[in-house]
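Sample 3 of the quickstart, ligand dinuclear copper ion:
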Amino acid sequence: MAREVALLWWLMCGFAGLVLVVVSALWIYAMRRAPREITPEQAKRINLRWLVGGGILLPSLSITVLLLFGGSIGERMLPLPLLGEQPLRVEITGHQWWWEVRYPDSGVVTANQLHIPAGRPVDLQVSSADVIHSFWVPRLGGKIDMVPGRDNRIRLQADEPGVYRGQCSEFCGTQHSHMILHVQAHTDDDFNAWLKARQDAQISPLAGAAGEIYATRCGTCHRVAGVSAGQRAPDLSDLGSRPMLGSGVLTNEPGSILTWLREHQRLKPGNAMPLHEDIDPAHLQTIATWLEGLKP
Ligand code: CUA
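Result:
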């Protein structure tokens, strides 16, 4: 689909370029040619010819051609019913400033990353929990707005396994640029293995004082499957396996989660997570290490 959008863009660019060249050539010709006498009758006829040809026929023809191309490309992007293999369904909700990703058929939830099988259509149902965001993975397809209270749909298909970058493309606040979605297209087997690992993951809660802090401070907003059920903030059940933290702010390497927990307001000012300055550093370290181990 992205390829077709690109093709349409180049066609429009080429046509607009051609119009520019022709109009400029006519303009230069009109300025340079020797003046000649014409009667008012002739002037009227020439004007009429330009009005009808250049003002009505040419625009109507170009718009018709563009509509024919654009309409058929647009139609192929719609999530219309398919014969044979059914699309994978995924629900994506935009938040200031992160992505909530749900697989309704398997109950798997994640955040800021989208895992999909390559070579199979994926129907995304997108919405927003706060302001208007826009979902866009430029190398896979078109853009679609994420509007609170409304479900929009778009179909994507990755032809090949690989990593694709998604980016919120509607200004949604100061950290709009830090709203990056990591899209990973897998082979069918790898995708099924990922989904199954996520479904089967058994996470043991953190024990002791750090566990207590997690439950009262973190777990009220964040969900970890089988441990805490918060709904306001990103699901953390597979945090250790995510390539990025903070929706694209930090690469997830050993130690990055602790850095994020300590400095998230410096790294991504205005994000909804409170500061952790009052938490004993040793306990914060224990929580970070536990989160780092969540890699189903
Ligand atoms: Cu979300 Cu811009």
